[in-house]
Specification:
CATH class of one domain: Alpha Beta
Number of helices: 24
CATH architecture of one domain: 4-Layer Sandwich
CATH superfamily of one domain: Aminohydrolase, N-terminal nucleophile (Ntn) domain
Length: 584
């Protein structure tokens, strides 16, 4: 797990200093007349210096961020090569050398962003894993290419930086930008499961894998048996590490399943958040430590609580490391947990909701489809029922709308008042959604897998864990689970039917309890810091494509406790601080 920076057909020097947090253990460089490659290493497998990157073999030069979970099996297919390390990186470069780029991609199982330079063909290949777990950013600069694990190194090379107004509107609407653009004009994310081939003759994009449903397994017992076999192999391979492995444990279905299967092989240290009484007094959510501790005790795992504390210093770190204005307090919680302990590898339940149908919005949209004639949006509902009021308030706003509105924090009329440019983010969302095949439930899951998962959840998970030099592994997004989920009938994914059936015998409490979601007490924190937030958001006036009078109305509705606009306001706060930190 590491970070890299490269330039191709560009004469400017490269600087790895802003990537040190991703790989504090060693630096490596390669340079010839065409390319410059720099690599920062976080040592996880084979801690010797022999495993440092870049790796060079024959005509190939490679930098690789991630883990290859089937590297030991692949090694058996590569006996003609003389191995000098015990690393997965060496296995990876030999795999590409023997089978080619696309042949090699069919072989490997893992999370990865990879840059390969072919010295003979004078080509660069940028590659991103199937789910988008590991980041890959790029920018076309003059006649060349810049690529990196993060945005900041690219900003050091390009001549000017500018704001991507469409991306900012997407962030306001959804808290994230749901395509390959970033908040910086001209800097892009490589799409998951894509290869970018670049040479002096131009560039091409290739899609090497697609997430689509086959509905081959409809029987619950058959599905349970196959899932348990696959998940056992996945967990066993993702526990391979030459450093300590820990677990983010919420006591919910996904993390409890990971803990249950991992307990066969290792006794893990677990961590879970607790919220201070100060925040909980004014918030509408509770922490999950009670449930997490119960699961840990049953598994005989040691568990430690980590208190959620948020201040201006942490706000600065959050915005600096996440690089784009992602207004989700869950990213702060990720940073706090990774900051607390020194374990270099941690397992997370990320991805279980998208693959197996865990989000409450799936239920909400299903209810709407059954009762769409009912005029819910016209019926008043009291504001003082806290979380229930918040959920009903949002449900009423998206009633009569397509599914992608369920991820939004504004409707069309509200956005029309808020923004001054001729751009509607729902049109882009509609384009993505309508190009997905399947019934309505399958379309919801695939839409989230292609947008919300890589461009939101996995983005903050990677950035905020690597900010503290921690490798976050996500077993539910292992390629073997992805392929299994493609075969599974959608009916077995409704309200996590399959996962609940696997977990029910061991942890019936986890199955029965209502999903709480990973986040933080953002509402409680806001009401303790209203003056600071109002003052900070004044800076957003610099964005002349936003209507600041409407922003003031949003703040008043929130702090006068007339509406639940917690994340709307938090997103505005993050955008304001992002403008300052990145010099706009």
């Amino acid at each position: 797990m590491c970070g890299f920076l490269g330039t191709f057909l560009i004469k400017k020097p490269i600087n790895l200093n802003v990537l040190k947090h991703r790989g504090p253990d060693s630096n490596g460089y390669y340079e010839d007349e065409n390319i410059k490659l720099g690599f920062c290493r976080l040592k996880i497998i084979d801690l010797s210096d022999r495993a440092n990157q870049p790796f060079i073999y024959d005509n190939l030069v490679m930098v690789f961020n991630g883990e290859i979970y089937n590297f030991l099996e692949l090694k058996e297919e590569l006996k003609e090569y003389e191995f000098k390390t015990n690393s997965d990186s060496e296995v990876l470069i030999y795999t590409f050398h023997k089978f080619g780029i696309f042949g090699g991609l069919k072989k490997i199982v893992g999370m990865f962003s990879i840059a390969i330079y072919d010295k003979l063909k004078k080509k660069v290949y940028l590659i991103r894993d199937r789910a988008g777990i590991k980041p890959m950013y790029y920018s076309f600069y003059k006649n060349g290419l810049i690529f990196s694990s993060e945005i900041k190194p690219i900003l050091q090379i390009i001549d000017n930086k500018d704001i991507n107004q469409r991306a900012i509107v997407n962030h306001l609407t959804f808290l994230f930008n749901f395509d390959e653009e970033t908040a910086f004009k001209g800097i892009y994310k490589l799409k998951p499961a894509y290869v970018l081939e670049f040479s002096e003759n131009g560039y091409k994009f290739y899609s090497y894998w697609n997430y689509e449903f086959k509905n081959e397994i409809e029987n619950l017992n058959v599905a349970k048996e196959e899932f348990e076999k696959i998940f056992d192999k996945v967990i066993k391979s993702q526990l391979i590490s030459d450093v300590e492995v820990s677990l983010f444990l919420s006591g919910g279905i996904d993390s409890s399943l990971i803990g249950l299967f991992a307990s066969k092989y290792k006794k893990l240290k677990a961590f879970s958040l607790i919220y201070s009484p100060l925040y909980q007094k004014k918030d509408i959510i509770k922490d999950e430590f009670f449930y997490a501790r119960h699961v840990a005790e049953k598994l005989n795992f040691e568990i430690e609580p980590i208190e959620f504390n948020f201040d201006e210093e942490l706000l600065n770190k959050f915005v600096y490391y996440i690089e784009e204005p992602v207004g989700d307090i869950a990213g702060v919680s990720t940073y706090l947990m990774c900051d607390y302990f020194k374990s270099r590898v941690v397992l997370s339940g990320m991805g279980g909701d998208e693959l197996f149908g865990g989000y409450p919005r799936y239920k909400a949209y299903s209810i709407y489809r059954k009762f769409k004639i009912f005029p819910l949006h016209k019926i008043p509902f009291p504001h003082y029922f806290k979380k229930l009021s918040r959920d009903i308030e949002k449900f009423k706003r998206v009633w009569n709308k397509p599914y992608y509105y369920y991820l939004s924090y504004y409707d069309d009329q509200e956005l029309e008042k808020l923004i001054k440019i001729n751009y509607n983010p729902f049109e882009k969302a509609k384009e993505i959604y309508e190009n997905i095949n399947g019934n309505y439930y399958e379309k919801m899951l695939i839409f989230d897998f292609k947008t919300f998962l890589p461009y939101h959840n996995l983005l903050y998970s990677d950035k905020l864990s690597m900010a503290k030099s921690v490798e976050l592994r996500v077993p539910f997004l292992d390629d073997r689970i992805l392929e299994f989920s493609k075969k599974l009938s959608y009916a077995l994914k409704i309200d996590k039917l399959l996962l609940k059936s696997v977990l029910r015998k061991k942890f019936p409490e986890s199955v029965r309890r209502k999903k709480m979601g990973f986040g933080g007490p953002v509402r409680g924190w806001m009401f303790e810091n209203e003056k600071f937030i109002r003052s900070e958001i004044e800076y957003i006036k610099k964005l002349d494509f936003l209507n600041f009078e409407e922003i003031k109305k949003i703040l008043d509705l929130q702090f006068q406790n007339k509406k639940f606009l917690d994340l709307n306001v938090f997103e505005l706060l993050i955008i304001s601080r992002w403008l300052k930190i990145f010099g706009f």
